[in-house]
Amino acid sequence: MDECRVTIANTGASFSCGRGETILDAALRQGVMLPHNCRGGACGQCKADVVQGAVEHGWVMSFAITDEEKEEGRCLVCVSKPLGDAVTVSMHNPVPGADAQPIAPMATRALVVSSVPLTPQIREITLALDPGCGFRFHAGMHVELGEEAGDGGRPYSIATVPGADGAPPLGLLTVQVTLQPGGRTSPWLHENARVGAELTLRGPYGTFGCDPAVAGTDGLLLLAGGSGLAPLLSVAGDLLANGFAAPLELGLSVRTAADLFGVGELERLARAHANFRYWAALTRQEGDPPAAYCRAARVPDLLRERAAELSGRRVLVAGPPGFVEACRGALAALGVPADRVTAESYDNRAAHLRAAD
């Protein structure tokens, strides 16, 4: 047989998977959403138990899944390919329910209609998609851009709030690209993704975000390091647009006041929704902060000052790995359970793709 039948034990969903295809790619191609992020064996978000059958594990990073775990019957479905005629896996992380809007990744062309520097390191790029291409996404997902640079493309989170049907409003999609020293894709995008250019876009991918029903009445805290603001703008805007009424707070960490960006949109949300507030931590600010919403401090220090407020909240963290790990450590020290913290680390996603090439 050229295909294997894969079953997700958590939901009973079943789909066909080609012999040379990963379980995750097969699932997404057929509209079956599984928890995932990096799609390259680095984050561990798609870890599963192999309940029936066997898989070829493929390339992985040891911190995402160890050799011992693989011997015990675990795998990462983003890189694992089925062996035999039938495989059943049980996902470790929650699987979207059958009522969730199915999302199928695609490859399409996108026209750059705006490309503006937000800071010396971050460029915001707005892409126009063909309205008839059928692109749909959930808040918090990412796309892959920049394969024209010759490095396979890199993941960039969507800052846009999805429309009620999951489509980008007016067919416009915005991403924020941080210039990575020594990188290939981000410098290429900063230089070449200018108005009128056409790019190949692949996606959407990822399950970063928060179900409003899971957030509960204690609310949600969003922590962004640099361009980690992009998915959190999408998440916050989507929650508020759909009537989320619990406390919703967003903290942005940048080096100095000169690195602040996105404040106009944060202020708009704060003025439109009484349950939303924001603040900024300036980690290398010299002199007084420029505005009342700014503090010359690091996010972990600010979290410790407010330990009593965090006991019941869910937390989403996005940004570079140093920022993410510092926030995770501070939250754990304050007694916030690990299962109440969802994180997305950008540099690790890019690093594992380079290593796998």
From TrEMBL:
Domain 2Fe-2S ferredoxin-type: 4-95
Transmembrane regions: none
Protein name: 2Fe-2S iron-sulfur cluster binding domain-containing protein
Residue ranges annotated for the FAD-binding FR-type domain, each copy included: 105-211
PROSITE patterns reported in the protein's UniProt record: 2FE2S_FER_1, 2FE2S_FER_2, FAD_FR, PROKAR_LIPOPROTEIN
Matches recorded under InterPro entries: 2Fe-2S_ferredoxin-like_sf (IPR036010), 2Fe-2S_ferredoxin-type (IPR001041), 2Fe2S_fd_BS (IPR006058), Beta-grasp_dom_sf (IPR012675), FAD-bd_FR_type (IPR017927), FNR_nucleotide-bd (IPR039261), MRET (IPR050415), OxRdtase_FAD/NAD-bd (IPR001433)
Tree of life domain: Bacteria
